Inverse folding.
């Protein structure tokens, strides 16, 4: 059992990671995305398990790599309408650079090098990787995707991508059955999708 002192130290560490990530997340306005995805990761860990020492830093830092791309490149790389080789190329840059930035942040705060390697590996393929190598990777991938099913994430993505509520709802409905690695995430997504259906119908 983790003691109170350990919990306090860990909470302090997580706060530090968020603070270090803020400048990088600000480029695309991703701080709220990181916070909500982190909350989903916490919920998934309760149901699925996984090492918080890998999962929590990874989900907080997974999108810091967008800071290495310009606004036009980000728009090309991301979203419902993103497609083609250039989109894929830019998305891979955000993964690769994100892993490098995350490594620098965690090294700066003297985190365990072995854990840094595992975290960087997850971030490097958090969008593109198809072969799930660990439970921790599965939880991070699922928590990231669940953001857009949340009320806040749904509204934010409509605004950020310049699409309608119906367009985003249809995109989520089309993909949610095949997107998730864990049963818990699938069930959360299904519940949230029903709420977004009502939300999108009100916006018509």
């Amino acid at each position: 059992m983790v003691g109170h002192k350990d919990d306090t130290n860990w909470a302090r560490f997580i706060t530090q990671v968020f603070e270090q990530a803020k400048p990088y997340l600000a480029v695309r306005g991703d701080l709220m995305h990181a916070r909500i995805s982190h909350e989903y990761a916490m919920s998934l860990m309760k149901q699925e398990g996984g090492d918080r020492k890998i999962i929590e830093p990874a989900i907080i830092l997974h999108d810091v790599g967008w800071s290495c791309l310009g606004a036009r490149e980000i728009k090309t790389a991301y979203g419902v309408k993103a497609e083609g080789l250039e989109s894929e190329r830019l998305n891979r840059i955000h993964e690769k650079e994100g892993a490098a930035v995350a490594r620098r942040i965690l090294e700066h705060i003297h985190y365990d090098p072995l854990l840094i390697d595992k975290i960087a590996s997850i971030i490097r393929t958090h969008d593109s990787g198809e072969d799930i190598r660990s439970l921790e990777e599965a939880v991070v991938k699922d928590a990231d995707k669940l953001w857009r099913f949340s009320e806040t994430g749904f509204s934010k993505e409509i605004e950020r991508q310049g699409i309608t509520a119906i367009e985003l709802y249809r995109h989520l409905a089309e993909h949610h059955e095949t997107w998730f690695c864990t049963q818990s995430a699938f069930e959360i997504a299904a519940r949230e999708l029903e709420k977004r259906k009502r939300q999108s119908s009100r916006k018509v």
In short: Residues 78 and 184 are 26 Å apart (CA to CA).
